[in-house]
Design brief:
With 250 residues, this protein is an alpha/beta fold. Helix content is 47%, strand content 16%. The protein is built from 10 helices and 7 strands. The radius of gyration is 18 Å and the shape is globular.
Length: 250
């Protein structure tokens, strides 16, 4: 008998445990267990084996205690930070020889699919301005300082991975979660109003996954902000997840 799936809710960079935990009742109402994983800006600079080693160890123990020695996980990844967390945890589990089965995957406000830290277009200034503006920072000084902090942070991440000739975290997300996991059905929850992960990036991810033969469902929430779809449209958000889960995990 296959073990009950565990929904791993992986939050966005800087999202608190409390904020990320607000998604768990959706899955509890489906009779599923959940675990919450948060994301830190430091994860952008770390290799996958250095991220959430404690979570991976706990999941290894869970798999070892299972009669089938198998772990069934449904990742609900929120923004790029959530993608990075799950990609790292899965990397460690596979490296440890754990049998991991992923029957479905949910993306919320993710992923960046064609733009990475190595390949931001020449309009990066416009992109950062749109991101900061979407945060409704009234003070021009704070707006400018936030813009500068994001620019410095992005350059730092790019330099860190370019220095060792390795793919940056956004590229790894696409490689591992879209390309290598092409057989896993995916639900994309996104918005035309998202300035952090623009809908064009999600559309490209959907097109890429579809071209690889992935079963894809998608919902565009229109005017909801980045990682704010559930907050602003809870009924529609939960209905989309319930329909997707019924389709692929029943």
């Amino acid at each position: 008998m296959s073990p009950t799936p565990l929904v791993l809710v992986c939050g966005w960079v800087g999202g608190s445990t409390r904020a990320v935990s607000k998604f768990t009742p959706i899955f509890h109402r489906l009779g599923l267990d959940t675990a919450v994983v948060t994301s830190s800006p430091s994860h952008l600079f770390l290799t996958p084996d250095k991220i959430h080693a404690d979570v991976a160890a706990s999941l290894r123990a869970t798999a070892a205690a299972s009669p089938t020695n198998e772990l069934v996980v449904i990742p609900h990844v929120i923004s790029n930070g959530g993608c990075i967390s799950w990609q790292a945890i899965q990397h460690q589990l596979v490296a440890a020889g754990v049998r991991v089965r992923v029957p479905a995957m949910i993306f919320d406000s993710a992923p960046h699919s064609t733009t990475t830290f190595h390949s931001f277009h020449g309009d990066v200034g416009d992109y950062l301005d749109a991101v900061v503006t979407s945060w409704h920072i009234a003070s021009p000084v704070r707006h400018a300082l936030t813009w500068l902090a994001l620019l410095v942070g992005g350059v730092s991440v790019s330099a860190r991975w370019a220095a060792v000739g390795a793919a940056d975290p956004l590229r790894r997300n696409v490689t591992d979660l879209i390309e290598r996991a092409a057989a896993v059905p995916k639900l994309f929850l996104y918005s035309s109003a998202d300035q952090v992960v623009p809908c064009a990036q999600v559309h490209d991810a959907i097109a890429h996954a579809t071209a690889l033969g992935t079963s894809v469902d998608a919902v565009n929430f229109g005017a909801t902000p980045h990682v704010g779809h559930f907050v602003h449209a809870p009924a529609a958000y939960e209905a989309a997840i319930q329909a997707f889960m019924t389709k692929h995990t029943s």
